[in-house]
Amino acid sequence: MSPRPGRERRSLVVSAGAASVGAGAINAAVVPEHLEEAWLFGAFVASALFQFAWAGAISLSSSPVLSWAGMLGNGAMVAIWTASRTIGLPVGPEPWTPEVVGVLDLVATGLELFIVAAAAWWLSAAGSRRRDSRADLSASAAG
Fold first, then answer.
1. Backbone conformation region of residue 88, classed left if phi is above 0, alpha if psi is from -120 to 50, else beta
2. 8 A C-beta contact, residue 9 and residue 62
3. What's the whole-model pTM score?
4. Rounded CA gap, 97 and 112, in Å?
5. What is the pLDDT of residues 87-107, one digit of tens each?
6. Stretch 71-76: mean pLDDT, rounded?
7. 115 within 8 A of 23, measured Cβ to Cβ
8. Of all helices (H) and strands (E), which one includes residue 95?
9. 139 CB-near residues (< 8 Å, 6+ apart)
10. How many CB atoms lie within 10 A of CB 2?
11. 62 pLDDT band (50/70/90 cuts)?
């Protein structure tokens, strides 16, 4: 017998929250070295704070707004990381110079990708449930 959908969703919420704490911890840990490069890279503080706050919020309520916030916020972090490793960022001490890929940034990016996928799944599943509910209402009204 397979687990109930509610239990699967709760497990995914807990996993995504843990992934967000992990990514936030990594982003917080690299703040000092990035601030030595350029004050603009203090954005890692904002990233870490966002990820910690999102983990707490999603554990209390996995609302569509929080799902969108997690998907878009972490998606933006993945996009910036990808650009910084492929073409380089247009700002900083060495504009347009790609950075070296490191183990910690790969782990953080993997966790962020997991959060994006989990949030997309929640939003998709919520949309399916709404469509099914409307179809059930239409069928019962017609019958």
1. left
2. yes
3. 0.86
4. 23
5. 999 999 999 999 999 999 999
6. 98
7. yes
8. none
9. none
10. 6
11. confident
pLDDT in tens, 8-59: 888 999 999 999 999 999 999 999 999 998 988 889 999 999 999 999 999 9
Q: What is the CA radius of gyration of the chain?
A: 19
Instruction: Encode pLDDT of 119-139 as tens digits.
Output: 999 999 876 655 655 555 555
- Residue 9 confidence (pLDDT): 84
Cβ–Cβ < 8 Å for 54, 69? yes
Residues 1 and 46: their CA atoms lie apart, in Å, by 43
User: What are the C-alpha distances in Å from 5 to residues 1, 103, 106?
Assistant: 12, 34, 31
Q: How many angstroms separate the CA atoms of 94 and 16, rounded?
A: 34
As given in the structure block, the two tokens for residue 106 are 């790969």
DSSP 1-44: -PPPHHHHHHHHHHHHHHHHHHHHHHHHHTHHHHHHH-GGGGHH
Measured CA to CA, the distance from residue 30 to residue 115 in angstroms comes to 20
| CA distance linking residue 5 with residue 13, whole number of Å | 12
